[in-house]
Design a protein that fits this description.
It is built from 7 helices and 16 strands. The protein has 311 residues and is of the alpha+beta class. It has 3 domains: 56 residues; 86 residues, OB fold (Dihydrolipoamide Acetyltransferase, E2P), CATH 2.40.50; 129 residues, OB fold (Dihydrolipoamide Acetyltransferase, E2P). The strands form 3 sheets. The protein has a 5-stranded mixed β-barrel. The chain has a 5-stranded mixed barrel with strand order 8-12-13-15-14, surrounded by 4 helices. The two termini are 44 Å apart. One of its GO terms (molecular function) is DNA binding. It comes from Haloferax massiliensis. InterPro entries: NA-bd_OB-fold, SOSS-B. This is Replication factor A. Keywords: DNA-binding.
């Protein structure tokens, strides 16, 4: 079967309960759009489906569901609102629904990345389990302020997979107010022993005892996204980017003041109370920042809260 024939057969099948339409007829309409009008196949398909929906006088979600009707999509490739897609993904995380109308909300992951998903109570779907992988047919994409998510609906087909879907990019993004900087931030000394790098407390490594430490910069910050707090670690490079204070400058500050804690105090004054978007892999309870952006503040505060509540 040609590509168009496959699409035609699927469309005819989807409408079989509503219209008397044959695969031949659908194929003809697709063919005309694709060949004569040079419309891309996806768009031709959408257009033909829409015209049959009009003809049948039904809404899209009344169509026969089932996977195979849509394009199999990687999460990271989703870049349009209100597209009907099929995904194969692992349930990475389930969150506590913040509203009665939400049955489940959380994060899906596949080898392209992660995306929020939501299932509404009215859809009466079987529950997804954290850590399990599924083929999800007929989910709808959604966009909110540039962030995409997928919505399960009552036509969504859910098939648990035997294989486990590999979740690619481990990155997470946290957006909120930097509310605290923890001790052990700023100018620190690390153990110089091979492969140790522990942060010294009063010149001592917990493993190697009293050593001549090596200076480093680090920030352990607490970011409040309006919903929960996240602990974020900025390494030397990210700390320099975040504060504009480089290691040599920090050492000079400490020497001038005869006190290394002055660096932490200086950073605290520059950062606490401002809004940031931090992205990076997670390690246990920490987010390891590898991208940071200072956001408009406090104009964003209300927006952040609204967004946090909507999750
Ligand atoms: Zn050590």
């Amino acid at each position: 079967m040609t590509d168009l024939r496959t699409h035609a057969a699927e469309i005819a099948d989807q409408f079989s309960d509503h219209l008397d339409v044959s695969a031949d007829e659908v194929e003809e309409r697709l063919e005309s759009l694709v060949t004569e009008y040079r419309v891309p196949v996806d768009e031709a398909r959408r257009s033909v489906v829409n015209s049959y929906l009009d003809e049948a006088g039904i809404e899209r979600d009344e169509l026969a569901g089932g996977s195979g009707g849509n394009e199999q999509t990687l999460l990271n490739d989703i870049d349009q609102d209100e597209q009907w897609v099929d995904v194969r993904a692992k349930v990475v995380e389930l969150w506590e629904p913040r509203s009665e109308s939400v049955a489940q909300v959380g994060l899906l992951g596949d080898d392209s990345g992660r995306m929020k998903f939501i299932a509404f109570t009215t859809s009466e779907l079987p529950e997804l389990e954290e850590g399990k992988s599924y083929a999800l047919g007929n989910v709808v994409t959604d966009e909110y302020q540039g962030n995409f998510s997928v919505k399960l609906n009552r036509t969504t087909s859910i098939t648990e997979l035997d294989e486990e879907i590999e979740v690619g990019d481990d990155s997470t993004s946290v957006e909120g107010a930097l509310v605290d900087i923890q001790s052990g931030s700023g100018l620190i000394k690390r153990c110089p022993e091979e492969g140790c790098t522990r942060v010294l407390q009063n010149g001592r490594c917990s493993e190697h005892g009293s050593v001549e430490g090596e200076f480093d910069l680090r920030i352990k910050a607490v970011v409040d996204d309006g919903d929960e707090v996240h602990e974020v670690i900025f390494n030397r490079e990210m700390t320099e980017e975040l504060t504009g204070i480089e290691l040599d400058e920090a050492k000079q500050m400490a020497m001038d003041a005869l006190d290394t804690t002055i660096v932490e105090e200086e950073m605290r004054g520059d950062l606490v109370g401002f809004y940031y978007r931090v992205t990076g892999p997670t390690l246990g309870r920490y987010v390891l920042a590898n991208e940071v952006e200072r956001l408009r503040e406090p104009a964003d505060a209300e927006e952040l809260l609204i967004k946090a509540r909507s999750m």
